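Input:
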Amino acid sequence: MKITVRTKHQNYTVACNEGERILYAALRSGAPLPYECATGTCGTCKARARPGDVRSHWQSAPGSSYLKPERGEFLMCQSTAHADCEILVPGKPAAEVAGGLLPEYLKGALCDLRMLTHDVAAFDVKLDGTMAFRAGQFVAVRTAGLEGYRAYSMVNHDERTDRLSFVVKRLPGGGFSNWLFDGSPQNQPLEVFGPLGRATYDPSEGKDILCIAGGSGIAGIMSILAHSTRAGHFEQHRGRVFFGVRGMRDVFFHEELSDFVTRAGGNLEVTIALSDEEVPASAQSDYPRLGFATGMVHLVTSERMSDQYGDAVAFVAGPPPMVDGTLRVLIVEGRLPASSIRYDKFG
Amino acid sequence: MAWKKACSVNDVAVDTLRKFDVGGVGVLVANLGDEFKAYPPACPHMEEPLEQSGVCSGGLLTCTKHLWQWDMRTGEQRAPAEKPLLMYDVRLDGDDVMVNVEHELEYEYEEEDDDDFEW
Ligand SMILES: Cc1cc2nc3c(=O)[nH]c(=O)nc-3n(C[C@H](O)[C@H](O)[C@H](O)COP(=O)(O)OP(=O)(O)OC[C@H]3O[C@@H](n4cnc5c(N)ncnc54)[C@H](O)[C@@H]3O)c2cc1C
Ligand code: FES
Ligand code: FES
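Output:
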């Protein structure tokens, strides 16, 4: 079917499959519509339709608190259409689809599942095709038997790859979490839609980078470090990473982070912020290339960065309260312009 | 004119925002240090309550939901914001912050071309 998307500045005609999320149909055909989470939580993708033209598949999505249903408002990422229709999208479309990379659907299978901590697992998806993505991007993942999609940020980075790596923190009782941690997901089929997201790293910007992650928010930061290291970024520019976890038993990727520090030859600093625990005496000797501090990650960032923000580009990812607290620090203390702050709120 | 007391000058710390009920109208009062300003309490973008989502720094107000920004003195938008901030007139009467709430200011959340979007 055909969906006519009207925005203030431009109209788009979009081919949409039966059962396909309207947002996904629009994005893969190149219409740069507003969205953030692509999975029903943020409300950013709201639009209007005539009564009966679209159907929401998740009435109680957290993002629907931003809707006025009496005005025909709906979330494009949670809704489908069953006949040709017209929708109205408020606001300006984004300037571009990140890197000009249009998202698409790819099938794959889960492999290499391994536990990184007591409640964090890593796995790869071996794709049937290949995907090109920018460091910092994510995909929407779907498995059989699970309602809706889940957003997961890629950990790895290559210009084009048939393998996507992820880390997932267990959410007790969560649908994907149960499937991943309690089921037998090895070699199970998955569908991914991506790449998605605008919190992307571009080496040609040529600026220092400041990365602040809470928990599994380190995923996209690892991808940014992989790309920046490969691009020789740290020969000219500095990088600082603040990685917040509860305690020492929650730290993962120490080896990989230490390796990035070594390869950056003094221009990359990684600090692990422990929110619930004093730094044990053994931490520094066990991980000599990493720094440790006690405190919430946004406060540790504030203390350590002090007046050294310069004109860095900042990347922030993690649970929404952690991201909001960090954005405040970057705006008030770092005086960073909005264009230099990129974030993903995981929920 | 409907000048009403919103709060006292000591109720809002410098570079912060606080929401007050001014004769039944919710008003967000900002203290810029040398000046007080008053705005409707909801973000012009998606109605996020700015008392929680708003951050004041260097004369700029930022909504942390999507980083829309405005000049706090003029209400003028800064990229990526697409709409200006509406402002109430404010004057000081001794220690009282007085706001003119003759008409409640509200953002036009509908698009101008909504009208020809027939139901
Ligand atoms: C941009 C982005 C990137 C993210 N990256 C990561 C990451 O790298 N690692 C990580 O651990 N987490 C990440 N998250 C969080 C992740 O998407 C999940 O919210 C989390 O893993 C919990 O999923 P769950 O299925 O276990 O929990 P659940 O509570 O079952 O589901 C949580 C999410 O799934 C979706 N959902 C649930 N029910 C429905 C339904 N009926 N219909 C449609 N959708 C539904 C919603 O988005 C909901 O917020 C990211 C989130 C975002 C927005
Ligand atoms: S993009 Fe649809 S709710 Fe976030
Ligand atoms: S709701 Fe305030 S910037 Fe979007």
